[in-house]
Design goal:
Largest sheet of chain B: 5 strands, mixed
Strand order of the largest sheet of chain A: 1-6-5-3-4
Largest sheet of chain A: 5 strands, mixed
Shape of chain B: elongated
Distance between the termini of chain B: 86 Å
Radius of gyration of chain A: 25 Å
Strand order of the largest sheet of chain B: 4-3-2-5-6
Number of strands of chain A: 6
Number of strands of chain B: 6
Oligomer: heterodimer
Number of helices of chain A: 7
Chain lengths: 203, 175
């Protein structure tokens, strides 16, 4: 009896549709992606049911981390350049063009004005390390620099919106100080950055 | 098991057909790369802009006397305490009113029910004052603003805490 020969066929899979889809998605993500800017501190924001989105541009972000440090950030590069020069004039510090350039590339920072120059002189890695123990921007009623930063930004760009990005565990005292600072500068409308949460359906 | 062998040549016709070979390309490395890129972009993308809740603070008045005083019957006060505690009472909290302070929490059955109670909902003039203690967390403030939004409470204000309110909380906690 002759042996039955089993023909071994390599299983072939037509991958073309899959590849089509994969590349379609790659293209989509490549075009829609915006790399999240590197921030000096990471905060865990509380969640809310609010559905308002933060505007794309002209935003001042005041970050309050859980150690009660306040960081300040503006999104526009041009505004930051103008802003630093204004603040330099107000506080009697001068910045070189290189330092202004470095400053305009920062997402946010948390150093008092008198240390800003040495902060800008640091290498990127050193600055990142320094951010972990940076003192934050002074918000006490004497020498409230945050107020000046907000005020000068609003002078440079009147359309600017103020957003507070606070960590869940920040004590209310610090937030109150920030809000008072804003109110002193006649900013009575501002945004609180929150995470998404589902709105409860049955009340 | 047997397999039907394909006939190589039927023998009919005799014409030799040129064998059509479909071009097979091994796409595996390309697929690998495509999915690698896909994963990379999916993970790095920041899809949505962060959400915000907008709050308007009352403009600080230049003249205190021009303000209209709030009637105690139209007021509700919520005090945010430490350790995620929340207290509320109706009225302005003057000692002679002897307000009944109630302790509750941030859950759906807690402060939300108080805000949905007829006393608040059916009084169009009812103003809710939120007074966070210094020891409360920022999350508490966002939570309470959120609850006010969920319960669709129109009139509310973030007010700084007074000593009488602190005392009320102390007595409540001492009970």
């Amino acid at each position: 009896m002759p042996k039955v020969k089993v023909k071994r066929t390599k299983p072939t899979l037509d991958m073309t549709p899959m590849v089509d889809l994969a590349f379609l998605l790659v293209t989509f993500f490549m075009l829609t992606t915006q790399f999240s800017p590197e921030e000096a501190v990471i905060v865990d924001t509380p969640s809310s049911v609010s559905e308002i989105r933060l505007p794309e541009s002209n935003v001042i972000t005041i970050t309050v981390d859980k150690n009660d440090r306040v960081f300040f950030g503006v999104d526009s590069k041009q505004v930051k350049e103008v802003l630093l020069n204004k603040m330099a004039g107000k506080y009697g510090v001068s910045f070189s063009p290189t330092e202004v350039e470095t400053f305009s590339l920062l997402t946010n920072f948390g150093v008092p004005m008198n240390r800003l120059k040495s902060y800008l002189a640091m290498e990127t890695d050193a600055r990142k390390n320094y951010d972990k123990q940076a003192p934050g921007i002074p918000i006490d009623s004497v020498g409230n620099e945050l107020g000046d930063w907000v005020h000068q930004t609003r002078l440079s760009n009147p359309k600017v919106v103020v957003a507070i990005k606070g960590d869940q565990d920040v004590s209310f005292e610090t937030v109150q100080k920030v809000i008072n600072t804003l109110q002193d500068k006649k900013v009575n409308r501002f945004n609180l950055i929150t995470d998404m949460e589902n709105r409860p359906q049955n009340l | 098991m047997a397999e039907v062998q394909e006939k190589a040549d039927s023998g009919k016709g005799g014409k030799k057909r040129s064998k059509k070979m479909s071009v097979h390309l091994d796409m595996t490395p390309m697929v690998d790369l495509a999915f690698l890129l896909l994963t990379f972009f999916m993970l790095t993308t920041t899809f949505s802009k962060p959400q915000t809740m907008e709050i308007n603070m009352p403009v600080k008045p230049d003249n205190e006397e021009e303000q209209i005083a709030l009637k105690a019957s139209n007021a509700m006060t919520i005090i945010l305490g430490e350790d995620d505690k929340v207290f509320y009472y109706f009225g302005l909290g003057a000692p002679e009113e002897n307000p009944e302070v109630i302790e509750t929490d941030y859950s759906a059955t807690g402060i939300r029910q108080a805000l949905l109670s007829p006393r608040v909902k059916q009084n169009a003039k009812m103003t809710v004052m939120v007074k966070p203690l210094e020891t409360s967390r920022y999350k508490n403030m966002v939570d309470i603003l959120d609850e006010l939004k969920i319960t669709d409470t129109k009139k509310f204000a973030l007010v700084e805490i007074t000593d009488t309110d602190k005392q009320l909380v102390q007595t409540k906690l001492g009970q």
